[in-house]
Amino acid sequence: MPIRREEEGRKHRDSADGEVVNIGTKDDIDQFVREVFQHEWSDYLDTYPPETGDRTWEWSDSGKPWGRLQPHVWRSGREYGLDLHFEHHPTAEQYTTGTLQFELHLEDCETGSADFSAETLHQQFRNRFERRAKRVKPALSERTEWSQFRITGSLDEHVLCRAVYPFTSLNKRAYYETLRTAVEDHERITSFATDMLSELTQSMPPARERSR
């Protein structure tokens, strides 16, 4: 998208080269976010992958949701109906307010929602996750850059936890760098969630076999 230069209007600060560029009206910002910001983050992570050891990551800037990230190993959960992944929301509101939300989601592979009644795999995973996350939260908060971290509980069932990070508003590179930091900050959560997924499914038949 060509970014126009004006004397007035909101500014987009591209920290890659230090240039300050005006992008004008709210409509201009919305267009920039829709055509550039919502997609370019994945290119940034391809070029500057998060430092999480030998873990292989996948991310998607298209489809629903278009701010989706997950370790490759979590794909095994889909055989059991467990769609475990992180999400962020590169929207115009977050771009202009300088707030990045990074969430861990547990959803159903088919519907996007999930059944959290007492005996389902989704609820079993959630219960285990909450117990473990509450134990490690104090130690995590000492070594991370988030400004808020919440284990969401039953109020928002498919979101297991949510972290909030500040970044320099209207600065796309600052957002991408903060997103990379969020992935690195969540490595301990990623690690024990991976173990839980394996433990919970190792003795279970895949969903397609249970439905026969």
| Rg computed from alpha carbons, rounded to a whole number of angstroms | 19 Å
Strand order of the largest sheet: 3-4-5-6-8-7
Count of the domains: 1
Helix content: 25-40%
Helical stretch tally: 6
* Structural class computed from helices and strand pairing: alpha+beta
In whole angstroms, the N-to-C terminal distance is: 51 Å
Mean pLDDT: 82
Based on Cα principal axes, name the global outline: globular
**Can you tell me the residue ranges where pLDDT is under 50 for at least 5 consecutive residues?**
1-10, 15-22
Major sheet attributes = 6 strands, antiparallel
Number of strands: 8
Order of helices and strands: EEHEEEHEHEEHHH
**Content of β-strand:** 15-25%
Protein name: DUF4268 domain-containing protein
Keywords: Plasmid
Organism: Halogeometricum borinquense (strain ATCC 700274 / DSM 11551 / JCM 10706 / KCTC 4070 / PR3)
